[in-house]
Amino acid sequence: MKATITVSLAALVLLVFSPFARADDQPVLSGNFLPSVLASSEPHRVSLTKVIKGRQRMPVWVKSMMTDSRYISLASEKVEVEGQPMQFFKTCEPRTCVDSEMRVLFSADGKHAVVLVRDKKRGEQFLGDPSAGEKEALER
Hints:
β2 and β3 form a beta hairpin. The longest helix has 16 residues. Helices cover 33% and strands 26% of the residues. It is built from five helices and six strands, in the order ααααββββββα. It has one domain: Inhibitor of vertebrate lysozyme (Inhibitor of vertebrate lysozyme, Ivy). Strands 1, 2, 3, 4, 5 and 6 form a six-stranded antiparallel β-sheet that branches. 29% of the residues are buried.
């Protein structure tokens, strides 16, 4: 009996405090941090890996971000792009945020990602073939 109550309470806590879902099954798109989202959401991890993998002229911290979370990530924001809710992240390399930053835009389900990398040495690159609306959101 005691084990059942403990398991039930643990499940309730997970449901209540999950950053990815609400009671109406809509993902929570704001207030999340990219390292924890990538660690816990396969769609986010897969879509971002697909966009970054094999790209040239990428800062080292961007190339290694899937396995090394030593970068700064601000809390995500929910933004609307072309009528669709999306999740927007700003990240940067510690101590050089002014010189090297990355902005990521995910679809609500995490299966689509587009990226803007700005680096003083390597220039500016859009990854993932963003639409005009997505580019505008990434540049804001």
